[in-house]
Every structure is written in C-alpha cells, then in structure tokens.
Automatic annotation (TrEMBL), chains A, B:
Residues 24-89 form the Cyclic nucleotide-binding domain. Keywords: DNA-binding, Transcription, Transcription regulation. Pfam families: cNMP_binding, HTH_Crp_2. Coiled coil: none annotated. InterPro entries: cNMP-bd_dom, cNMP-bd_dom_sf, HTH_CRP, RmlC-like_jellyroll, WH-like_DNA-bd_sf, WH_DNA-bd_sf. This is Crp/Fnr family transcriptional regulator. PROSITE patterns: CNMP_BINDING_3, HTH_CRP_2. The keyword DNA-binding applies. It comes from the Bacteria. Residues 147-221 form the HTH crp-type domain.
Length: 242, 242
C-alpha cells in the first residue's frame, strides 16, 4: 500500500478506515493536476466547477464583493477538499486561488457519489470533514466578531498548527507557513501593518515567532490561554467511529 | 403519505427524493420533543450530545468566549439540523437555544449512519445541507468583515426570506420573524440601537419593513441590489440530482 494521503490521514482522525475505504480514497486521487499562484482553481459565479482534493501546497478561498471588498474565508492545506460546495451548488459561491504551487486531484462528482454508495462510512467521514470546515469558518466569524487582534491572530495560527500536524506537515511546536502579512490581513480583517505589529507583540510576549516562512510556538500553553483555543473542532483523541 | 416535512422540502431542492428516501426521512422524525426558550438544546463543551431536526420554531446557535463575548453564528429554522456537528465532533463547539417554543426530532446518530448506508442519495443530500449551512456562515463572516451595517442587515433578512420560502414558511415578499433587535444585533455585530436605526433607514428608503414580527420586502429588487444578494447558495431552480 502506498503512503497514506493527507486526506486519508485527516479522515482517520474521525473514522477507522478499512482497506476498502483506503483504496476507495486512493481511486479518488488519480487525476492529479498542477496549478500556480495567480490562476484561480475555482471561480466565483461560474457553473460546472470541478472539485479537488489538495495534495501539495496551500490555497486560499475568498469572496469578492460588488463594493470592491475581498474577504479571505479560509486557507486550505493538503488533505482538504476544494470546491466541494461549488460542485454541490452547481455555481461557485467563492474563489479558490493557489498561495504556492499546488498539486490537487480532480474529483469527478459522480465518482464521489458512487464511492458513497459503496462505502457509507466514507460518506460519514466526508460529512465530518465538511462539518470541520464549517467549524473553522465559525471560528473565523467569532474571531472577526468578538476577538481582539491579538487573540484573533493567535487563534488563527494555532488552528493552522493543529491542522498541519494532523496531516503530518508540522509538529506541535512549529510549521512552515507560506502566508504573507497581506494574506493574513485579508483573512483577519486587519491591515498588513496591524498584522505586522501584532506578530511583533506576540514575539515580544515570548509566545510565538513567525520568521522566514516558519511559525514557532515559543510558549504553546501561554498562546492557547491567550487565544482561548480548544482544538476539539479539529482533532480527536482516537477515531470516533471504529 | 403524510405532508412533506420541512427537511424533505429543503432536500428536494437538491435531490429528487424517491419514496424510499422520503420514508427514510420520515423514520428520522419519530422521536419528537418540545423545548422552550431559556433552555439550551445543545451546550458548548458538553460531550455525547444529541442531534435534532428542527420541525417547528426558531433557534439560535452561538458561541460564548472566555472574554465574555457572545457571537450568534446563525439562526435555524424548520428543516434545519441542530447539533449535527456536535455529534460528529463528540464535543459541542457551540450552544443552541430556542428563540421561540420549538419542536424538534431527536436523531440517533446510528440511525443516521444506517440511513446513509441504505440510501446513499440521502447521504449526498445531507452533505449538501451541511455545505449550505457552511455557505451561510461564510456569508455572515463576509458580512461582518466587509459589508456595512445597511448591506449586512439587508443581506441577512433576504437570506431568511429565501430559506423560509424554501420550506414553505413565507412568500417571496414577506415572512414572520420572531427575532428581537437584541438577537439581530448579536448576529450582525451591531448594537441593538444601531440595528433599530438601520431598520428605520431601510424602511425610509422604501426597501423593507420589519413591524410586529413580520418582515415585508417593499422593494425586493432594490434590496437585492443594495445587499448584492445572490441566492444561489440557498436554493436552486430544480434539483441538481435526479
């Protein structure tokens, strides 16, 4: 058996995957494609979109408003679905753009549906993954609505840490992060200058360092306390479904 | 056959439901329970939660923060799942409280999973419903992040209109709305005084009237233009899956 894909690693947090489930997941990864920054994978308002499973690299999903505003809704990392909602809705309600060079597997919706029919445990796992995506957006809403800039930034960077660790792309203490302060600003509802100031403050408090494309938690527990961060929406101690 | 439940009406926007799907949905509605305002249906941080399908009344889901803040994430109306995410996560990441007296059917998670195994089309429909819930949270995030108070309030009230119409609880032009200005304020990230001012402004502009528990769109197209509202994330012209 090949090494587990990031998606298989992620779903394994929710459900103990059988060999049948795993080979079904492998089959969903066959049509691998590459994308570069600057070209949207999914484009708001277009119909007949394709869904992808992200295998390598980071992307961001965002909405453009008629008033000219842009809100980054989330970033996706390996193991995440891209554009699943757009396929289910027939029309994309958001844009997805690579942040780094990206490799993603095209998922034909009929393949996904027949996979559900063959392995209903997989359907439940995908429902869990979609609920987890929703929980992240909820946290981003709560962050912009009710957390100050320091708490909000700390929460976001802790969330990345837990997500990346689950798919084997970071440790509890550190991870590679390709995001510019401009991208973080558009996600956090702050200016890039403000993000820069907040990151300096977090470093001076001895909590976190974001330097040369790497986030390091200098005081993990202190950061968790500051951000009131509870990773229960991202990871579990052992699969829920056996 | 009994009259279609609000959930069946909603899912029918996505998938043409067979008689087998419909009777499966009926079976999920057997354990009907009643709840009153002031008592949480789902309580943040608790484990072993139950999921519900809302049959009558309105509830709100919200998060409480350690810093004392509260953010209403969404309101649920008949046909919506309550606490599905909490069941999949083992621990509830939010609270759900009735806004009005409520009737909801308890869904045992094992019943839902075996329903998925028997009718995979239903699993896809539930995944669509979960994606739709996520799309609403995305809109609320974009609203708080990038829309001004007038656009944001108009968008929220148009969204309720489309959701209620889909489950047969309103017309294109009007619906009963039990929300106080305090609840709206906690959802919109505004003060109740500000909400009051925005609603007066919308009325004076001839766009919308919210009076005596009823929202009336006085100029639907004008309101849609103001809010840049596209209902594609809520409803479809005929089911996507036949």
């Amino acid at each position: 058996m090949t090494e587990a894909s990031p998606l298989a690693r992620k779903l394994a947090a929710f459900v103990a995957l059988s060999d049948e489930d795993l080979s079904m997941l492998d089959r969903l990864h066959q049509r691998r494609r590459k994308f570069v920054p600057g070209v949207d994978l999914v484009h708001q308002g277009q119909s007949n979109q394709t869904a992808y499973i992200l295998a390598k690299g980071w992307v961001c999903s965002y909405k453009l408003l008629a008033n000219g505003g842009r809100q980054i809704v989330d970033f996706q990392i390996p193991g995440d679905f891209l554009g699943l909602r757009s396929v289910l809705f027939r029309t994309a309600d958001h844009n997805i753009e690579p942040v780094t060079p990206v490799e993603a597997s095209e998922v034909i919706i009929s393949d996904l549906l027949s996979a559900f029919a063959d392995t209903p445990r997989l359907a439940t796992a995908v429902l869990w993954a979609a609920s987890r995506d929703e929980a992240m957006v909820v946290e981003h809403l709560v962050g912009i609505g009710r957390r100050n800039a320091l708490e909000r930034t700390a929460h976001y960077l802790l969330e990345f840490g837990a997500r990346l660790k689950l798919v084997g792309l970071g440790t509890k203490m550190s991870y590679a992060c390709p995001l510019s302060q401009y991208l973080l600003a558009d996600a956090l509802g702050l200016s890039a200058v403000h993000v820069n100031r907040v990151l300096r403050q977090l470093r001076e408090m001895g909590l976190l360092t974001f330097h040369n494309g790497r986030v390091t938690f200098d005081d993990f527990e202190g950061l968790v306390a500051l951000a009131d961060f509870d990773k229960a929406y991202l990871d579990h101690d052992g699969p829920l479904l056996r």
